[in-house]
Amino acid sequence: MQIINLLHRGPLPYMSVDALQRYLHEKVASLHAPDTLIIWEAQDTYTAGRRTQVQDIPDTNVPVIAMDRGGSVTYHGPGQLVIYPIVKVRPPQDVVAFVRTTEQALIEAVQTWDINAKTVAGRSGVWIDAQYMPTGLESKLCAIGIKFAQETTMHGMALNVSTDLEQFMRVRPCGITDAGVTSLAQLGLQKSLAHTAELLIPYLSHSYQQFLARPEPEIHYHQAPDQLLEEAEHFLPPVPERTGVAWKPTVEHKEA
């Protein structure tokens, strides 16, 4: 499994890394690049998945980018660890199984830090039970939104490490009104993004091997991630219609 680690760049523009993931997605899908995890941190950005409803963005002054993933609206920003798995899967494709496996890998990883995480029926992501929350609300620690295209995954997960949780309050995160959002910091764990990535990467890589068309348990880091990012920005891969632009409530949203 190849790792492209961009954390040393600090918060990056969302669409710059989106270009990188699409650039790599084409290469992985055509078997011209190894299966990859992109590790990065975003500048302040709100993105809307295909299930976003008008009521999910009560503050119309919030700039929201429409993206070709499932789910509703969410926030990305400093202090949040974003991981995009770009991997070629063997048939049959099962996005639900892939998401469930991602959830379990993350849960097992954070358990080593004595974080009692769980899944919630009918809701994707990694959650913390209300009894462990200072707010008394069941809260999401990590959002997950994964898409399959050309038998290859894209988009991924966003785990709140030291994220400013108030930023989520400008929208209804994932369209959910009866739960909260949390971070490792709010749970009393002071970790860096780099340290968190070091913990999660082996768990994710190991868990994904069962899905891969080309299993590769060895983890290796790309030696020139900055150059790869520049290549992708120069190449400017095409994006689907109504993706990467301002979200409009008049757009019809259908979940694939």
What would you note in describing this structure?
This protein is α/β, with parallel strands linked by helices and 256 residues long. It has helices spanning 14-29, 95-111, 193-208, 225-235, and strands at 2-5, 36-40, 45-48, 64-66, 73-76, 80-86, 117-120, 123-128, 139-149, 152-160, 180-181, 220-221, 245-246. It has 4 helices and 13 strands. Strands 1, 2, 6, 7, 8, 9, 10, 11 and 12 form a 9-stranded mixed beta sheet that branches. The chain has a 4-stranded mixed beta sheet with strand order 5-3-4-13, with no helix packed on it. α1 (14-29) links the parallel β1 and β2 (36-40). α1 packs across α4 (225-235) and α2 crosses α3. The longest helix has 17 residues, at 95-111. The model is unreliable at 251-256 (pLDDT under 50). Its EC number is 2.3.1.181. Pathway: Protein modification; protein lipoylation via endogenous pathway; protein N(6)-(lipoyl)lysine from octanoyl-[acyl-carrier-protein]: step 1/2. Residues 31-212 form the BPL/LPL catalytic domain.
